[in-house]
Amino acid sequence: MTAATKNAFATALLAWFDRHGRHDLPWQHPRDAYRVWLSEVMLQQTQVTTVIPYFQRFIDKLPTLRALAAADEDTVLALWSGLGYYRRARFLHRAAQLCVEQHGGELPRDVGALTALPGIGRSTAGAILAQAHGLRFPILDGNVKRVLTRYHGIHGHPGQSAVEKVLWQHADEHTPTKRVADYTQAIMDLGATACVRSRPLCDSCPLAGGCVAHRDGLTAQLPSAKPGKAIPTRATVMLVLRDANKRILLERRGPQGVWSGLWSLPEASDHDDAWRAAQQLARIDDAQALTAFTHVFSHYRLQIEPLLFDDATAHRAIADNPSLRWCDTGEIAALGLPAPVRSLLQSL
Fold this sequence. Notes:
It contains 15 helices and nine strands. It is of the alpha+beta class. α2 crosses α3 (48-61) and α9 crosses α11 (180-193). The longest helix has 18 residues, at 3-20. The radius of gyration is 24 Å and the shape is elongated. It starts with a helix and ends with a helix.
């Protein structure tokens, strides 16, 4: 690739960004390292329109890195509740604590020190350094992968190491030395608004003239799909134990597995197991089957059958178990709950 081609790519993209890019995102004003970092983590596998209200709520409650580091985990998970992929929130929290312990309460400007923090990979580090400090570092998130894959006509799933290596090379080649922050936002915006997954808006794309996929009619085939495999289905029974004061019994999940560390509903493998578990947790008389539903994870589907045990009476032993607690509506709102569990409880 010639220097002129590289410069033409960035020049055309920046000109497009000045007219059509997104300039009013909440993390752009001010565009400091903490806000850029928070937005980048939230935007992993999540669209901008979904992230904006979560970002605003999070930043209102925890406006600085030091505030995040000082917060307890329940507060962080409650603010994250609904975004999914909760490991992101835990890594964010731990990384903030490490910044206080090791970097004077700031995100380091060194890329090696940044990527040493939990949850910060090469692309997130590049986004922080480019957008907050104007330093020349490339990024390679999902939107950028799609733009570069189509522009250069690269076949093979972008998640494969060999393909990703080539994409990183192109990402670095195209990153300019000036207006790096704007360029970084521009290429993400192009992927999010024009070079979208299906039916890309090639007629309004500033890069269409040099795009291999557009030239060869390959926009529907690129990026190449991930090799498919069957998604298994699992089933669980969730116990909704509600006492006379309308409090719900919640259980904190263990450190391993899905929803680790979140407050959720006790679970059982089937109806008989559910009755046995409920009787160990409270004195109960009857159960009502609520509407079953399915929650889809990235790697499996979970069929959830809720059983409501109303007017349950708490066993005293629960008070001695820190992983079990009866919560009213206000207390539930302040805890980190999986989105389907929160929706289920709100429907009662």
